Amino acid sequence: MPQLNGGGGDDLGANDEMISFKDEGEQEEKISENVSAERDLDDVKSSLVNESENNSSSSDSEVTERRPQTRPDSESYEKTRDYFSEALRRQQDGGFFKSPHYPGYPFLMIPDLTNPYLSNGSLSPSARTYLQMKWPLLDVPGSAGLKDSRSPTPGHLSNKVPVVQHAHHVHPLTPLITYSNEHFSPGTPPSHLSPEILDPKTGIPRTPHPSELSPYYPLSPGAVGSIAHPLSWLMPQQGQHMYSIPPGGFRHPYPALAMNPSMSSLVSSRFSPHMVTPPPHSLHQTGIPHPAIVSPAIKQEPSGDISPSIKSPVPAKKEEDKKPHIKKPLNAFMLYMKEMRAKVVAECTLKESAAINQILGRRWHSLSREEQAKYYELARKERQLHSQLYPGWSARDNYGKRKKRKRENKPDSKPEGKGKKQCVQYLTSEKMCDSPASSHGSMLDSPATPSAALASPAAPAATHSEQAQPLSLTTKPEGPSGQSNTPILTRPIPFTSLHPSMLSPPSPFHQALHSHHALFQSQPLSLVTKPTE
DNA sequence: CCGCCTTTGAAGCCA
DNA sequence: TGGCTTCAAAGGCGG
User: Any idea which residues the entry calls the DNA-binding region (predicted)?
Assistant: First the structure.
């Protein structure tokens, strides 16, 4: 095991890690989490909405704050915020997220939970547990207080967010624990899995919508400890059941750590039924076929299944039979995307991933380093977990699995311009907006991942940005305004320095998330993405 | 129906 | 060691 420090606490090196974010000095970005959160949203919105305008003015104002001045629902907006704040506060007080976000990462390895990484398991995690993540607090048996907080939120959300809630919400953080191994002996799913309902869309059985059940999984510290808390795992959203950890199930090398809220959230989202090795027949206890088995996601990689027999509708290829397709661990940005996608979608009516991803990319850059650091950290942990679970696995294994070749010429070459063209289309204006984000500069420099600090090079992102952002983003360099003083590569700062605050539990991070959430909900943007040149 | 589009990051491969 | 390629998620769209 590469890096598990024995100390469960901060193991994973959180301490030693360094994050290379732009620069410490940049306050602009960090302003305050709240602000940033708002800013983010606003950014996006504004960008989406008034792209045209902002180009000129945006440069400076953005940094500080660009918010739409007039918002129709400003009131609601405010309320929402208050709501969240209040809720958060309570939660915090309640000790909800007391543990650091990455408390040691208890690597909870749940033996049989479906592994997100397995192709079969491909249910989109996101779909499953988003809510949970969002309101992890709620529902906690242990803390009554929490519930209070929760109620407002969800309801709140519900008002405005029409769409979303279901599928896409997955808390990004969740991913970690999900790795499961086929190797692990399958545990039996907890008996208490909640009754399932058929998903309207998919028809796949799913547990009642969070709202119906208690979407929130138990996070209370104490409760958390009980890994088994059924609910936590159960949140399947789209037909995915979350199995609770089988009693005997834990077998991984690491001692099972107590689950803390954050963990639980992590776990929940990624636990997909698949991971849990479904009973031989792949039926849920209820007897309903495991959704995961059918999951659409599979389309990408039809081949491997953990247990071919069970799930794959299509007989697994013989070749792959043995080897389930193990997916790559998600990187920080992917984790972020998973979480935020739903929000963005809710906000704007956009559904196209390409467009949404552009927005997300922008937002990613505008995240404060703390926020990004969290994702980097999570990603790092995921990788670790992944490596532990699949020691022999290599990214190379997946090479060639996808048929698609993708455009060879990425950025520049843009052969006939097709590639770029699209970019433009999706976010024409946004691009403009984008720059702001970059101007925030936050991560342009691309923070090396925290871990990166450890190992990585400084700026992977840099490369990307260059290549990948045809659009406009010339951003990296920063700002026209020059505000971004931040040199492109800033020296990495010790992760530790970030640590305290970043990781702190209730923290900003969560707040930010919540607030974002609230915002989005309150203001749906309808963005017109395709400008149509 | 499959692959592309889009994003960032990680990892692999090749020179 | 650096640059390029592939894959990870995701959902609409086009061929």
Answer: 326-394
